[in-house]
Amino acid sequence: MLPADAQAVSPKETRKRPLVVMQSVSKVFSSGTVALSNMSLTVESGEFVSLLGPSGCGKSTALRIIAGLGDVTSGTIDWPSSRINSRGLPEGDIGFVFQEPTLMPWKNVFDNVHLPLRLRRVPKAAAHDQIIEVLTTVGLQDFAKAYPRELSGGMKMRVSIARALVTKPKLLLMDEPFAALDEITRQKLNDDVLRLWKATGITVIFVTHSVFESAYLSNRIVVMKARPGRVHADVPLITSLERDAHYRTSEEYRKACETVSHSLIGAINSAGDH
């Protein structure tokens, strides 16, 4: 029984709780460099949020802090919808795709994807179906026995994405994963990530310095000022069109790029303001 003055929380209300909340986060490195200053950001479950800003604005630092790969100097990171472990992080709820695929060259695709499960002491045999399932999701089911040296740059990045997804995380963090790829491969992988996002309902935070990429992928873009990084603008992107090759040439996409570009210019011009 609830106390008389208590209010019951319905499952629907529970689902509305944010996935992650950055509150007044600042980060100062040992060198004295101020990477982030009083940055606040709330990400809801199921969103595709891009962090957009000039090089050195703290996008990757913010992402790494959310992932627990760096400590905050001040402020807090909260996970209202998750069970928290002893390190203050959600248990098994985060997948991370780095700028480089970071694959182990001496292991084949299957074994590279197995790594996060192996760290959880899940035997290869028990993980087999789960690994094949995620490789199928990224279109690499026929390359399970291939080695990284036998793969193209785009295929290596797909392996990295599969490795991040194999634990079925709630949140996928992507740190400029396609920046080093050619434009055709990059567009294909953008489409792959959108397809995965729609199919799985996973929440994505995607770091990029490309206006065009952010406007194509996101339903929300957080534009950051130059160092010290903080939020300049929070731009929602809602479209009635399917995001595909036709969308790339649409007037709606052009307008979205224009809006985001103007916001980015404003962030750069006001970089010295506090």
Q: What is the first-to-last residue Cα distance? A: 50 Å
Name of the CATH architecture of the largest domain: 3-Layer(aba) Sandwich
Strand order of the largest sheet: 5-6-7-3-8-9
**Class inferred from helices and paired strands:** alpha/beta
The largest β sheet comes out as: 6 strands, mixed
Going by CATH, what is the homologous superfamily of the largest domain? Answer: P-loop containing nucleotide triphosphate hydrolases
- Cα gyration radius (Å): 20 Å
Number of domains in the coordinates? 2
CATH domain class name of the largest domain: Alpha Beta
Report on the structure:
36% of the residues lie in helices and 20% in strands. It is an alpha/beta fold and 274 residues long. It folds into two domains: 18-93 and 171-274, Rossmann fold (3-Layer(aba) Sandwich), CATH 3.40.50; 101-168. The strands form two sheets. The protein has a six-stranded mixed β-sheet with strand order 5-6-7-3-8-9, sandwiched between helices.
Concise summary:
The chain folds into 2 domains: 18-93 and 171-274, 3-Layer(aba) Sandwich (Rossmann fold); 101-168. The protein is built from 9 helices and 9 strands.
